[in-house]
Amino acid sequence: MFLIKNIKYLREVKKLTQKDIADAIEKSPQVFSQYEKGHVSPPLDVIVKISGFLNVSLQDLMFTDLETGNQGISRVGDKDRITRLLEKELDRLEQLEKEIRETPGALDALREVAPELAKKIAEQN
């Protein structure tokens, strides 16, 4: 995938700072810097926000070397399958976000369990 390379390339071509993009995706410049360096993988919802802000399709942002125009996935079927999986995951995240917003107390409960959940995920990686 070309995600990290493309984000940096497009940021530089468009003469944007890391802070410009961080503000647009509602993250700190430090967090965005970690994404751009490849130290932390941005979650799918953030990738979608970056894609929209940079005015590039999600598919191109992830699977095409925008600097050279080369595609990283040679088989169209693979590219389409991965795109469908990403879209399905984004739909799932949007539904979860909606349910959290509509359930009284859910956001407070999420805030309570988030640190422990993050710790467990970090241990698995």
Characterization of the model:
It is a single chain. The protein is mostly helical. It contains seven helices and two strands. A hairpin with a 4-residue loop joins strand 1 and strand 2 (70-71). Helix 2 (18-24) packs across helix 3 (29-37). The protein starts with a helix and ends with a helix. Keywords: Coiled coil, DNA-binding. Residues 79-113 form a coiled coil. It comes from Haliscomenobacter hydrossis (strain ATCC 27775 / DSM 1100 / LMG 10767 / O).
Features:
125 residues; mainly alpha; 434 Repressor (Amino-terminal Domain); two-stranded antiparallel sheet; 7 helices
SSE arrangement:
Elements: H1 3-13, H2 18-24, H3 29-37, H4 44-54, H5 58-63, E1 64-65, E2 70-71, H6 76-102, H7 106-124
Protein name: Helix-turn-helix domain protein
InterPro entries: Cro/C1-type_HTH, Lambda_DNA-bd_dom_sf
Coiled coil: 79-113
Query: What is the CATH superfamily classification?
Result: lambda repressor-like DNA-binding domains
Percentage of β-strand residues: under 5%
CATH topology: 434 Repressor (Amino-terminal Domain)
Q: What profile does the largest beta sheet have?
A: 2 strands, antiparallel
Shape assignment? globular
Which CATH architecture would you pick? Orthogonal Bundle
User: How many domain units?
Assistant: 1
Within the largest sheet, what's the order of strands? 1-2
Distance between the termini: 20 Å
Mean pLDDT, to the nearest integer, reads 85
SSE string, helix = H, strand = E?
HHHHHEEHH
Structural class label: mainly alpha
Helix % is over 70%
Coiled coil: 79-113
Domain HTH cro/C1-type: 7-61
Pfam family, one: HTH_3
GO molecular function: DNA binding
